[in-house]
Amino acid sequence: MAFPLGLRLYLFATARRARPGGQEPAGRADRPSGPLIWMPLAGGIPPSLPQLIGHLQEAPGATRSTPEVLVTLPGDASPSLPPDVLVASAPPQSLPDIRRFLDRWRPDLVVLTGDCLPAALIHEARRAGIAVQWIDAAPPRAGHPKRFPGVLRALLQSLSLIVARDRESARALRRLGASDSRIEIAGAPHEEPIVLPYVEAEREAMAALLRARPIWLAAGLPEAEENLVLEAHRAALRKAHRLLLIAVPHDPARAEALRAKMEIAQGWSVACRSSDEEPDEEVQAYIADTEGEMGLWYRLAPISYMGGSLTSGARRSPLEAAALGSAIVHGPEHGPHGATFVRLAEARATRPILSSPELGRAVAELIAPDRAAALSHNAWEASTAGAEATDRLAAMIAAALPQPAADNAGDEADADTAAAGPGRGAPTEREAP
User: Fold this and answer.
1) Domain 200-367: which topology?
2) How far apart are CA 281 and CA 318, in angstroms?
């Protein structure tokens, strides 16, 4: 397909704005010998990306060799990625810089994510015979101005595979010019459940000590919310006098000050984990100020309030609680976990609250085992659905990688046919629009 005049003009206009030159990727100097996937990230790192990379390196695909992944980031971004991922600075979006980058790294596949299609990259990858896929795709919200006719259609039709995040996105992309035969729907990949470790013998001993008392957990409790949580606990105690609060301070150094608030201002009997004290029957609040035991507290507490979510932002991911069967209560301030909270809320898997009185009422209501169990069940289903989508997506990406020559000596004709097509591998069975 010849590129339309609008795309040529658009490439010329964007090239003039791109900064010349580029930075050599940090880290390893040589291209890996095996399959290489390039993932250029225009913005931040999607929370699901580390899991997707892990699934890719385990996915049964067209190659036995484990693919390596090269991630490029803009500016001085400091990524949080698995240690075996190659990380580089993104090349400027000009044709010569992209060409040099592709010649330097020779990726077998380019995988785009986000809501922007980099025209220079797609143009140069197509010229070099490198397949470009777009995952978690939705209609672009920016770029590709209307004064350059045909740009978006040309870019969409240059992609070997478009994995739409849902049916509505797939329909919208078809209307914009994407080829129906290259659109798949795998579901949006999401951050997966975080199963924190705990010692089962310790859980059994603690559970026997607690004697089936109702328990709720304040996880990652910041100083600004200490009084709010204590007020909520006091209110909930009126409904359930045996209720135990397990408070995990965000800063363990706050343990003594928090204990003083509980004992002096509230008149409660308090025990502290770091002092080897136990939550006996008369204890109303237990301060868990030791490191590395969050898995134990989530497992013991049927209800978890995500600390910070009423003020400056949740300190911990709600998927920690979801993975260990604790019902999630949270305020409106989600911090870095916004997308995860929204997804769980849409699945009716959390109890949102807006104030300390609402927190107290929520705890009192969720003491009923069936109510807490319904929330935790929905949270588990919503969080594991992301893992299934990630599995499907990893299989689609892996299928586009070249097969080792030794495994395909008798299939050279098929390999030549695949190489001549829009991508280097056939997509999996397509979901009907």
Assistant:
1) Rossmann fold (3.40.50)
2) 29
